[in-house]
Structures are given as C-alpha cells and as structure tokens.
Amino acid sequence: MQTTFPRLLLNHxxxxxxEPAMREKEYGIWQALSWADLATLVEQLACGLHLAGxxxxxxxIVVGANRPRLYATMLAVQSLGAVxxxxxxxxxxxxxxxxxxxxxxRFAFAEDQEQVDKLLEIRDKCPQLTHxxxxxxxxxxxxxxxxxxxxxxxxxxxxxFSSKNxxxxxxxxxxxxxxxxxxxxxxxxxxxxxxxxxxxxxxLLNRAKxxxxxxxxxxxxxVLAYLPPAWIGQNIFSYSQWLACGYxxxxxxxxxxxxxxxxxxxxxxxxxxxRVFEGLLTNVMIRMEDAGALKRRMFHYFMDVAKRVGPxxxxxxxxxxxxxxxxxxxxxxxxxxLRNILGMxxxxxxxxxxxxxGPDLFTFYRSIGINLKQLYGSTxxxxxxxxxxxxxxxxxxxxxxxxxxxxxxxxNGEIMVKSPGLLKEYFKNPAATAExxxxxxxxxTSDAGFLDAHGHLKIIDRVKDVGRIKGGAxxxxxxxxxxxxxxxxxxxxxxxxxxxxxxREKVCVxxxxxxxxxxxxxxxxxxxxAGYSDLAQKPEVYQLIKECIEKVNADLxxxxxxxxxxxxxxxxxxxxxxxxxxxxxxxNKVRRGFIAxxxxxxxxxxxxxxxxxxxxxxxxxxxxxxGSVSATLKLxxxxxxxxxxxxx
Length: 648
Description:
By secondary structure, the chain is α/β, with parallel strands linked by helices. It has 3 domains: about 5-190 and about 230-250, 3-Layer(aba) Sandwich (Rossmann fold), CATH 3.40.50.12780; about 390-460, Luciferase, domain 3, CATH 2.30.38; about 465-645, 2-Layer Sandwich (GMP Synthetase, Chain A, domain 3). Helices cover about 40% and strands about 20% of the residues. It has 22 helices and 28 strands. It has a 5-stranded parallel sheet, with helices on both faces. A 5-stranded mixed sheet has the order 12-13-14-15-16, sandwiched between helices. It has a 5-stranded mixed sheet with strand order 24-25-26-28-27, with helices on both faces. The protein is globular, with a radius of gyration of 25 Å. The mean pLDDT is about 90.
C-alpha cells in the first residue's frame, strides 16, 4: 500500500504512542523520545514553518549530525508538502552554495554554531536564504543576524498556532500524496557540480519496505545512526526504513563516542561502508599486536579455525563434530568477546555498501558469526537493487535482485535496472536525466558486471574505469582499478589506494598508509617518526607496503581475467587524501581523474622509472586556512608474477 512519511509517523504515534521512536545520547545519558512526543514535535515544527512562510513544493536544507530534531524537521517539511534536502555536515561553506542556489532554498536547519557560521559565510552568494534555524544554542547567544532563530522559538510559535488551529496539521498531512516529491539528495559527484536526485515518498518507501521484507525486519530492531544523513545509505536505514518498520533509531553523542555507543546500544540491524569495517578490524589487530604472546597465539589459532569453519556454518551447512567443538570453544574464548568489543553481539543483519568490500575483510566478519552481507544500489535507485539472502552471502557478488527489480545488461556490459525505487529526475537537469533514464524506464547504472549461474550479480568496476593494459607483456589485458584498490585496502596498514593503468603498459599505485596502524607497527619496532609525512617515507614502511602489494600480485596472478592488473610500481603519498582538498568525494570515494591531474608529476615519475620525485601540495586546514606540504617521495618497484595460466 502506498503511503507517505508523515502518515507513517502518525500511524506509529496512534498505535504505540509510548514506545520509543528515537534515543539521543547527551552528556553520557541516553534519552528516549516516544512516537507520541515525536509526532507532537513534528506538528509544532510544521506549524512554525508554515507561519514563517514555507510553502508546498519549496525546498529546505537540513545540515547536521543525526539528531531527533533534524529528523523531526525533515518530517515537518514533508508534512507541509515541501522537500527536505540533507547536506553533508562536513562539507565546506563553498560546497553548499550550488545546492542552495540550484534548489532556490529560503529555509535552513543548522544543528549548531559550526553549521550556522558556514551558512552565514555564504549568505552574500545565496541572498534568498532568509530563514536559518539552529538547534544547539551554544556559542550563538551574541549573534544578531537577521532571520537567525532558534528551533525552540520555532517550536513555541508552532505550538501557539497549533492550539488555535487543531486540525491544520492533519489536513496538511492528508494533502501529501505518495507520488509527491519526498526528498532530494545531491550526489557528491567526482566531476562537475553535484546533481539533485529527486525521489518521491513512494520510491523511497517502496524500496525501504522491500529491504525490510527481505530481511524480516520488525519494530523490535535497534539501529545506530552515525553516518551523514545526507548519504542516502544512512537516510534509507535510519529514516525511510525507520518509518516503514517503526524500529528505534539511536543517535550517538558525537563521532568520538560512536564505538562506545555501539557497544551500549548493541544494534540488531547494522549498516556501514567498507571503510568503517576496515577501521574496526584495524583497531582489533592493533590491540592484538599489543597483547601478550599467549593471547596472540590463542587468537591466531582460533581465527584459523574460524576461517575454515565459520563461513560453512554461516551458509547453513553442517560441519564435523571436531570442527563444531573447536568453533564452539573459539566462540567462548575469542569470537564472542570479539563481537562484544566490536559492538556487534546482538547484530542479526549487517550490511555494507557504497563500494566493494575486500573478500578477506568480508570473510573475517562472517567467520566470527556476524551476518555481514553486501547490497547493491545507489542514490538514484533508493539503495535497494540487489541483496544477499542469508546463507548465500559471497564476497564476489552483491546478491540477487530484490522485489520489484529487473536487471539486464547492455551490449557494453553495463548493468541496467528497472525498479519502483528509481529517481523521478535530476533536478533542473533534463539532459542528465535523459542520459540515465531510457524512455521505457530503464536506468543506466554506469557499472559493469554480470549475473552468474546462481542469479547473483557480480560487479567488475565502473564502466568508464574498466580499461585495458596497452603494450608490454600484458598487452590487451583487462584493468579494473577499483578491484585492485580494494584488494590492497584489506591490509590494515593501507587506508587508501589510487590505481593507474588504463592505456599504459603496467599498473602503478599511490598509497595512503593508515597512520594509526602503521604508527603502532613502527612504535613496536622502536622506529621513531615526526608525523605522517616522515613515517610514510621510512624505508621500513616502504618494505612493509611492498610486501602487501606483492601478496596481492600473487592473488592476481591466478585470476584469469585480471592477472595483467598486477602492480609494478608504487609510492606512498606524503599526505592523506582528503575531501576538503578535492581528492575524495564526501562519501570518501576516490576522485581518480582529479588526483591524476593534481599529482601528474608523480604519475609521470612512476611510469618513467624514476626512483624519487619532489612534490609540493596545497592543503586546506580544518579552520579554513590553506597551506602547503612538500616532500621528496620514493618511487619503488614491486615484484610481479607470471600468470599461472600462461606458466602452465
């Protein structure tokens, strides 16, 4: 049955008014907000925004971390038939200008002083932005800018209006139709201005329901909302599915407390991009390196058992009595405590998406009893296209098409999707809309892949990124940069990778080390360093990274399709790739073309066989200032292997 976000809110409030809808951690204490209280708050906000002049079809931006009042504001906006646009809270002020002007935004919700300052900074470029509402008043007492109002005052005004117009809110909610625009998300594009992806209430809720039905989600789930609300992945899991299922969404106190909050809440339904799972595993491995010899031996012994037995058990298959006993013992001594440390003791379903996860990383989590699965989707498809059924989760696929989805392959191998969750359009961009949506309703994903014999979808890479090696011993071999990058990123010492090779005779990579993991490794070897740049260029670190690369090359050498993608040369960058410097998108995807241009001198050095290269790079600091860092980088070779098939 088709419905809208505000109607779902009112249904939950009527059916179970006293049950918690959200929890927020403040000053170390979890505070619950019931469905009835949330509905009252949304009504007051909607009435206040109506009084201020927000009208049907208008846009309002919300920028901040996951907070009950941010979610309530989105619901209030939707209740009036207007459209919320969540923006990334870590985006620079300049990055906010295009979405605000493109959508002709007059109203904004800003969580705190940081976000208010950002919006005030660009007000001269966005003169139509006249109404700014802040939630956290800390640091804002002395501000006197026109149109700057606290959410408390907005609620108070709305409460007064509602008491005199008791039917206004429900009448407004009844006017909102399932096919009305429900939200807009600006993609963090790797080139050019971002595009506004327009979704209806129905497209978002249809996919939320499909995902919920697939994994049998209920109102009893607990979810931790800690990723940016502007990312559609977080938005679907903690907003669309939250209202579709009626489970509890928990908002951590801050980014610094997420790990602690994860343990305290013990979510049953968990979602994170691969980088989060990588970070959690890196912390575990660092702690194990610092443990005593006996604990380390026990950990590694039972992890070997887990790798052999765990995946078989997760597939629902039986194992021998000996294996069952050893795994049960490992569960008591290692896996159970490890799941507890990770905050995943109660996880029933865990998903990862956003980009491919390394197969070894994927296997690690499943081997210790965490039901980690992959899904496939995008902003334009309202996330849910393919999901992995329980007992059928594999590292090399992203699952089967979920309810309502059709998939076909274009002649060039591009995946085409038809689904009730497709975007309505790109806002004010009919040309871009026509490029991705065919007249008969098929969406161009820009991903290359195929359906295997079991009906599971396999993703190779972006269509535009899949290339060919040109010249040399591997002339004509396929090159899939993301595949190579993800294999390298499994190692805890490697945080980010940028691979080059299309149209060239060999593959070269730039590496970002994980400062915490490599720093810990260096300290245990009494290797002193003065910071990231110094540590990154240590000969010992280069040897460590070379060993990781050569292990990946050994794996690639037995891959018939990608044996030619082995890494021949590499360097370790002197700085971490950063979204503020334009090198990553706001969802932490590598902007490979931008990096190739910015670091052209390094790319040239790698391919010309240089052993060192000086580089000076402009960087942006957190306070908005710019500066530069410079270093002479070492460029090194890695051993490649003859493909197994060729050697046979």
